[in-house]
Design a protein that fits this description.
299 residues, globular, 13 strands, 5-stranded antiparallel beta sheet
């Protein structure tokens, strides 16, 4: 005869067995085995995954180890811009020669902005986040930084990025650039970048930008004519796969391949980051594993 107390214990044992996938025998009764969700193995040196609805951690691999972030840095550039008081996304920004000079000197990725053209803040966000334009990132940093020179304004903007990082609890992060081209002290971690992503994705503007596959901007030339720019294509080839909504790729000689990602499917939402994957293909495979694992853990 099973007493009420013993019956409660058995029910609890069964619940534990169902959670772990183990077969647990208590008092001669056994629970049927449940399918365990096995954590994936990823090739990237660092990775992190969370339930983006609750903030609960689902996966970690060297999640707090500082690494180069490459162009995933541009998420913070967008965060600072979108946090400006009384921001008008239709404000026009004139592209300075210093922006072109910077791109040439660094051999940086570009949205192919043209000196003298007037480009809106909204367009610059697309130019920065889709083709990963360092020229768009610099134009935004110059616009929203304070100072009397381009150098002073961009330095001031980078200071704002670090202030924002502290306010978000990104304790293992430091920025020394607006675009991820490190000057020796630009680093973050998978966990910190996911914190940043979760905060920035609360912006409807940002969310709309990063889930866009292609965007064609119409800028204003020096003479007042309209210039139709070459279409900007998103570097994130995972967009649309299994509910993927973004967020930002990154790559570099030392940083290797990085991706901060978000995905939602059937009401289940995950978000995370992988840093220092050895190839673009491995980065994609890692993120797919993590997204699928996250959905399985939540369901």
């Amino acid at each position: 005869m099973i007493t009420a107390t013993k019956g409660l214990r058995v029910r609890r044992a069964v619940a534990v067995a169902a959670t772990t996938g183990a077969v647990l025998v208590t008092g001669g009764l056994s629970a049927a085995p449940a399918q365990a969700v096995t954590a994936p193995t990823i090739t990237a040196k660092g990775g992190y995954l969370m339930n983006s609805t609750t903030g609960t951690t689902l996966f970690t691999k060297a999640a707090d180890t500082k690494r180069l972030t490459a162009s995933t840095t541009k998420i913070m550039t967008a965060k600072v811009v979108l946090s400006q008081a009384n921001l008008n996304l239709d404000t026009k920004v004139t592209i300075r020669k210093e922006v072109s000079d910077y791109i040439v000197s660094k051999g940086a990725s570009s949205a192919r902005l043209i000196v003298g053209d007037k480009v809106t803040v909204r367009q610059l966000l697309y130019g920065m986040m889709l083709p990963s334009g360092c020229d768009a990132a610099m134009a935004l940093a110059d616009k929203f930084g304070s100072g009397t020179t381009v150098k002073a304004r961009t330095a001031n903007f980078i200071g704002k990025m670090n202030t924002m990082a502290k306010s978000l609890g990104m304790t293992n992060t430091h920025f020394d650039s607006f675009d991820g081209i490190s000057n020796g002290s630009n680093y973050s971690t998978p966990r910190d970048l996911t914190k940043l992503a979760r905060s920035t994705m609360k912006s409807t503007t940002f969310k709309a930008v990063v889930k866009t596959k292609a965007y064609t901007a119409k800028t204003i030339t020096k003479t007042g004519a309209t210039r139709t720019m070459q279409t900007w294509n998103n570097t994130n080839t995972l967009l649309g796969w299994n509910g993927t909504l973004g967020i930002k790729t990154g790559s570099g000689t030392e940083a290797k391949y990085c991706l901060v990602f978000a995905a939602t499917l059937n009401g289940e939402s995950v978000m995370g980051a992988v840093l220092t994957a050895s190839s673009e293909a491995n980065r994609t495979a890692d993120v797919k594993k993590l997204i699928n694992y996250g959905y399985a853990r939540i369901s």
